[in-house]
Structures are given as C-alpha cells and as structure tokens.
Amino acid sequence: MKINNLNNDVHSAPTDRAVLEQAMHMQGAAWQQLTTSRCPYLFAEAAVFISSTEMQQMRSLIHAINQVVALPAWHDAVLPESKKNNIPRSHGVFFGYDFHVNEEGVHLIEINTNAGGGLLNALLLNSQQQVVVAGQMTADANVEQIFIEMFLREWRLARGDQPLHSIAIVDENPHEQYFYPEFLLAQKMFERAGFLAAIVDPSELEMLADGVHHQGQKIDLIYNRLTDFSLQHHPNLHSAYQKNLVVLTPHPHAYALYADKQNLTLLTDVNSLHAMAVPEEIITILQAGIPQTRLVLAQDAEDWWAQRKQWFFKPATGYGGKGSYRGANITRKVFGEIIQGGYVAQRMAAPGLRVMSVAEAAPAEFKFDIRCYVYAGEVQLVAARLYQGQTTNFRTVGGGFAVVRVVD
To answer: What single-letter DSSP state applies at residue 65?
Structure first.
C-alpha cells in the first residue's frame, strides 16, 4: 500500500528545519528561545501520510457525531439538570478529534473541547507550504484568519452586533504551562487583529456587577485553556459564565455534550442510539469509526481483569493521557485503583506507525495519532503527533507535532 510505503520510508517528507526555524524566529527571538528551551520535542522530524479515503472517513464521523449531539434526546442523556437550561449559543473553539489510523481504518480515540496546538501547528504547516513532497497539506495558508473568524463568530453568536474589544487567554499559572508559547502566539494573533489581549491566571480576574475585569479592563471574551472543564474549582468564573457576564469559549456545556469520555459509551451502544432515534446510517458510521467503549464497574472486576489486554483504560474526566493505561501493562495494584470507579475502557485500536531516523541514528518506529481541529463540525486543520511509549507525550526525541499530508 502506498501510504504504508511512504510512512515506512525514512527519507520521505523530512521536516525542513531551516524554514521552520526561520518561521519561529519571525515570532521574535525571545519567543523562539523560550519555545526551543521549554519544548525541545515540540515539532517532529518528518511528516505523516494518510489517504484521502481515511481523511473522508474522519470528516464523515465528525459530521455524524454532530448530528447526534444536536438531538434533544442526546441533551437529555448527557447534560446534568444544572446544565439543561441556558445553553450558550456559541459552539466552543478548537475542538480536537483524535484518531488512530491503521490498516483496519480510522478509529476515534477521544474528543477534546480544549485541544492545544492549533496555533503551533498553523505555524508548522505554513513553514512547510513550499516544501515539495507528495500529498496535499491539510490547512489553508490563511489559517490564522480562519481562527480569527472563529473567535468572531463565537462573539457574534453570543453578543450579536456588539463590538469585541478585549480577550483574555486564561489558564492556571499560564507562564508555567508547557504550551505557554502557544498562549503568546494567540495573544499576538489577537493583537494583530486589533483586539486587546492578555494572558491571565483566573485568580487575576475580578468579577464585578457589569462583567469580568482584569487590571481595570473589562474582558469581553475568554479563550478558556483551563483543564477544569466544568469549572468546579473556579466558582467565580463559573458564576460569571452562568450569568452571561462574559463570553467563555470553549465552555462547560461543550465539554458535557462532546468531551466527557462517558459519552463514548453511548456513541458505541446501538441500543442507546436506537432509543435516541439516531438514523441507521449514522449508527453505521459510528460503529465503524469508534472503538467500543464501556464504563468500568467494580462488580465486573473479574471479567475486566481477564479481558484487560483487549482494552485501554482512561479516567472519564481525564486529559492529556494522564492516568490512562494500556490493559496489557497494568499491574494488580493499578487495576485495583481503576476498578474503584471513574474510568472507561475502550477496545484497543493500534496507532499508526511512522519510521524515522533521528540524528543519524538507526531507523526506529514511532507511533502517531491524527488530530482534527474542528469548529462547528468543520475541520480547519489536521496534524499528527509522533511519539514512543504508551501515550502522546512530547518527550520523545524526534517526536512532536507533525505535518499531515493527504495522498490519493
């Protein structure tokens, strides 16, 4: 198969480091130095290839999920009572649909409503636009404008024709975050578009009667990078969100509707889908594209232990691979913690493989997943993450974000 040949060829589509370094330098020498020192394995040494058929399968699955999520029965099934009212009109920026792609097809591993890396991948892809390699790029050259329009659409959905003046990029201890360089890219992007922009810890926000403020400036929109997806540990911000004092994107409703991993148990349960009156053709797409996912319950402990090698265990509210375990690797002690609750198990779907030679070392296999950055159900950009080990980690020499090229 041509795709396998390309992904197994150590000489195919190496990242042009010279033009990447030039693109990074254009963001400022300080930014480049910070990014290189904090994130030495941010950008991979080579591109990843997928077929146009695989790309279409991913798009079809994303559209199918959006059709299910739009159903009132889905809202009834996944939204807690506290969230069934005052559902925001905004969609939520930077959804991430993560796939494993192998010879059996494409497999949706999870959905994120707070997916990092969109701006970093835009920089990487733009730097490689002129590199002559087989396959088509997976984002337009004007992807920054597409991102700005996304934020503007979020604002208009929530506030209509009111002018947008100020944006806060919010995360806990933002200067200490691994993706802080991306926060800086977002700040520069917003400023180029004419907005006031600040990078802010939630403790620095002041909740007043007329809205949310930072250092005397009213904040119109918050680009939310918190991993406290339901805002349970940030009650003041949650209150401001509930009272519609600020436009928050992505928001807790988006997480509840899409990204809670327990939702995958419903999306792979034919009986539940029938009960929600999901059309048969949509069920077929979901069954083909999402590995079976089940809640891990203590009363089934013996069965889970016996079958563990067939499953991958994840905390239902986890992120970034934290607390996730390949069943074949778990010990009795770890299994004892998993079985206490709060976990889902997903049938194993092997990641794709890419062969590379890093720093003149012998060729080695790297695993990869594919992330589709999605807004309102439409794919904006596609990237890969190359790694070695159990989950994506940005600690693998030669690994990191990679360009994806689509080959017919």
So the answer is: H
